[in-house]
Design a protein that fits this description.
Elements lengths: L2 E5 L2 E4 L4 E8 L7 E7 L6 E6 L6 E3 L7 E6 L4 E6 L8 E8 L18 E2 L3 E6 L1
Parallel strand pairs: 2-11
Antiparallel strand pairs: 1-3, 3-8, 4-5, 4-9, 5-6, 7-8, 9-10, 9-11
Length: about 130
């Protein structure tokens, strides 16, 4: 079991940057594939980024490539999402998630929401134009 707590959201203007953090407790986060998803009002939760257990492989949805960077600090049991060049369409609640699959190797990443077993409560990001 792992508990995830997101932080770092806020209200910013288009072009600004934010860094989201996801602190994991209850288990070492390095044993999980970690991901970020977002959900706008009235819409389904969608994949944003994921990082492998060893932190070497990453995956991003096309709309954030070149602007967002996912990283992890195993010593701090924390995963980050650095968001640069924010756009109004990035406005959403952002959720951190963990995939506990013990059989995946250190380089495995997934973008499938169904693969993630644990979720945080979310942090709101609002980008004004």
């Amino acid at each position: 079991q792992v508990q995830l707590v997101e932080s770092g959201g806020g209200l910013v203007q288009a072009g600004d940057s934010l860094r989201l953090s996801c602190a994991a407790s209850g288990h070492t986060s390095s044993t999980y594939v970690m991901g970020w998803f977002r959900q706008a009002p009235g819409k389904e939760r969608k994949f944003v980024a994921a990082i492998s257990k060893n932190g070497i492989r990453t995956d991003y949805t096309d709309s954030v490539k070149g602007r967002f960077t996912i990283s992890r600090d195993s010593a701090r049991n924390t995963v980050y999402l650095q968001m640069n060049g924010l756009k109004p369409e990035d406005t959403a609640a952002y959720f951190c998630a963990a995939d506990r699959n013990p059989y995946s190797d250190g380089f495995y990443v997934t973008s499938d929401r169904r693969d993630f077993d644990y979720w945080g409560q979310g942090t709101q990001v609002t980008v004004s134009s």
